[in-house]
Amino acid sequence: MRPTDRAMPKLVRRTSAAGALGAKQIWLVFLLGLGHAFSLPRHSLPVSRWRKNSSHRVAAGDVRHFLAGDASPLLCEVGARVGQALPDKLKHKELFEAHAVAELAQRHLTQWRSEGLEVQTAVELCAGCGLVGIFLALLDRRLRVLQLDRRRSKLAAQLHEMADSWDLHERLGWRVADLRPAGEEAAEFEPGSLVLACHACGLLSDEAMAAAVAARLPLILLPCCYARNPKALVRAKRGHPSFAWPRYPWLERGAVNRLGRDAVDAARVSFLEQNAYKVVYDHIDAEITEFNRAIVAAPT
Ligand SMILES: C[S@@+](CC[C@H](N)C(=O)[O-])C[C@H]1O[C@@H](n2cnc3c(N)ncnc32)[C@H](O)[C@@H]1O
């Protein structure tokens, strides 16, 4: 008999006895029971040895493993909360990646502060589900985090709701906005901000960099999607958000893109250095993603 066959009649008895429960709650109890009953292959390993690029979703059955977790306590706490509150929604890869990116950002924020560069707000561009910013707000209690994306997914809204239980609501904001400006100018940011973009695809990473340079703000960029032939306009259209070559002179109207990933990042770094930025490459664990390189730049 499989573990679920044993568990189901018990659950049915329990739920029918609890006649006052609503249908939603009964399902929740049922799913939590199933999650507990199913033992997945990863459950025979400690959390630190789970596959970090897995597209399996964080499940209710993962909760007790996170709670007994041998990985970073914050990663395990958030993993457990996600498994409890939002089972089967968030990919394991997204959990590990968001935590790794936030830790990387926090390391550099600490270093910059020790050198006298104050950052009060992290502006996370192309924030996706928003978990990077949530981890960062949990790691850095002095920081406000403003997250921008052209849409707000249901998961992003649910994760923000979940983050309220950590009392983050005053330091965590979301704005729906297109990162591409509607014309020649780059987007604007308040002084004291850090521009942070994780996997803003292709030219969106260049757009983030253009915005940081225009405002002379520190930048943490983990680029991805290096198209060899990206499309951008020679002249930006007024009133229409668009990619426009004049905003990214380091790409030489796409000639650099044709040379591949390393050439594109080298051109980004070189442009930042020419504009009086101190730049270093940093990395998150390559087991999480092949796009694990971060360009970390602070104005000097
Ligand atoms: C690959 S996802 C990265 C999400 C998240 N940063 C992460 O690492 O998981 C790219 C995100 O960029 C957003 N995006 C795409 N085009 C955009 C634009 N023009 N302005 C703002 N956000 C955009 C998408 O909605 C999506 O959430």
Describe this structure in words.
This is Methyltransferase domain-containing protein. It holds the Pfam family Methyltransf_32. It comes from Effrenium voratum. Residues 103-227 form the Methyltransferase domain. InterPro entries: Methyltranfer_dom (IPR025714). This protein is of the alpha/beta class and 300 residues long. The chain folds into two domains: 1-38, no CATH class; 94-299, Rossmann fold, CATH 3.40.50. The protein is built from nine helices and seven strands, in the order H-H-H-H-H-E-H-E-H-E-E-H-E-H-E-E. It has helices spanning 3-17, 23-37, 63-67, 73-85, 92-114, 131-139, 154-163, 203-215, 261-274; strands at 121-125, 144-149, 172-176, 193-201, 219-224, 277-283, 293-299. A seven-stranded mixed beta sheet has the order 3-2-1-4-5-7-6, with helices on both faces. Helix 1 (3-17) packs antiparallel against helix 2 (23-37) and helix 5 (92-114) packs across helix 6 (131-139). The protein starts with a helix and ends with a strand. The structure holds S-adenosylmethionine.
What are the SSEs and their pairings?
Layout (H helix, E strand, L loop, with lengths): L2 H15 L5 H15 L25 H5 L5 H13 L6 H23 L6 E5 L5 H9 L4 E6 L4 H10 L8 E5 L16 E9 L1 H13 L3 E6 L36 H14 L2 E7 L9 E7 L1
Helix pairs in contact: 1-2, 5-6
The site of S-adenosylmethionine (SAM) has 15 residues, from β4.
